[in-house]
Amino acid sequence: MWGIMKYQLSTAALLLVALSAGFAQVASHAPTVFTPDANASVAAPSQELQATRVVARVNGAVLTERDLMRELYTIFPYANQHNGIPKSMEPEMRKGALDMIIFEELVYQDAEHRKVTISAERMKRAEAEFRKRFATQDEFDKVLKAECNGSLEVMRQKIRRSLLIEAMLKDLQDRAKVSQVEARAYYDKNPEKFKRPETFSIQTISILPPENGGAEVQKEARRRADDALRQARATKSYEEFGLLAEKVSEDDWHVNMGDRKAVERDKLPPEVVKAALAMKPGQVSDLIQLGGNYTLFRLNAHTPAGKIGFEEVKDKLRQEMERAKYEKVRAGLYKRLRQNAKVELS
């Protein structure tokens, strides 16, 4: 696909581009000459071969290897940085990319059948936006030659095609909108999905002596732990405790101000839970010995188990519901269009 006004799947790369996966969104970007790394894991065919090798015909319209490779590199934009598309992923990604270019061709043909129009003003604006993405006229001319045989008219046809696809998929997005009333109804009907576990938000300082270090090593570790506790008790804020943790703590969280964020109760040692239950936010615990290690922590928050309030979850819930609804609507459209189409794979 040429991708002037490109609908991309937000989760396509992560889910190996299953056509039904992800929530489509517009992502405008200038097309470039397809030039993958010469050392790519999956070698790209020559430019000439890309332009002529047919991968599919959709109601007679030809889709080429170049269309497919461009879609692959749109799905996996860091291919050059990773020496191409990993061979283990290539078959599934290629299948997903093929499905995508077939889907977009079907959507485009449906738009033409429905006589969807693009205003002259919208075309003019899109062409201007496209041209702005090139630093020089020479860069623009190179792409025009490579992608459009040097023809401005071909370029405008491609822009129009992309805008028609955009318009059709925007209509799907509008049909997938979820109201707050719908989201509230779902929330009320599915209380189990909105339970919140009991959590403790803590920052830790730990002293970790070597195993089998002997009595003197343990004695020195205890001395350092007591000194850390003394300094921690003198701190007055999250920041002060965090800076101390970065300075003296020996656990993996010291690089993040000792902050372990919200930890579920059943994932904490019983000794830590017992201490935390007796504390108020902002207080520093006593020294706790866990095996041969010494730990102390600052309690930042204790959140009892309960149900997440609708106000807290409503925006994310609507997004998730719209994503699921969009996937269903789009899958239905693809099935309908494919059912009545003649699709020939090469």
What does this structure look like?
- There is one protein chain.
- With 346 residues, the protein is an alpha+beta fold.
- The chain has 2 domains: 5-182 and 320-345, Orthogonal Bundle (Triger factor/SurA peptide-binding fold); 198-304, Chitinase A, domain 3 (Roll).
- The chain has helices at 47-52, 65-75, 90-113, 120-131, 137-148, 152-175, 180-189, 214-233, 238-248, 270-277, 310-339; strands at residues 5-9, 24-28, 54-58, 61-64, 195-196, 199-207, 259-264, 288-290, 293-303, 306-307, 343-345.
- The strands form 4 sheets. The protein has a 4-stranded antiparallel β-sheet, sandwiched between helices.
- A hairpin with a 2-residue loop joins strand 8 (288-290) and strand 9.
- Helix 2 packs across helix 3 (90-113), helix 3 crosses helix 6 and helix 7 crosses helix 11 (310-339).
- The chain is elongated, with a radius of gyration of 29 Å.
- The protein starts with a strand and ends with a strand.
- The model is unreliable at 1-43 (pLDDT under 50).
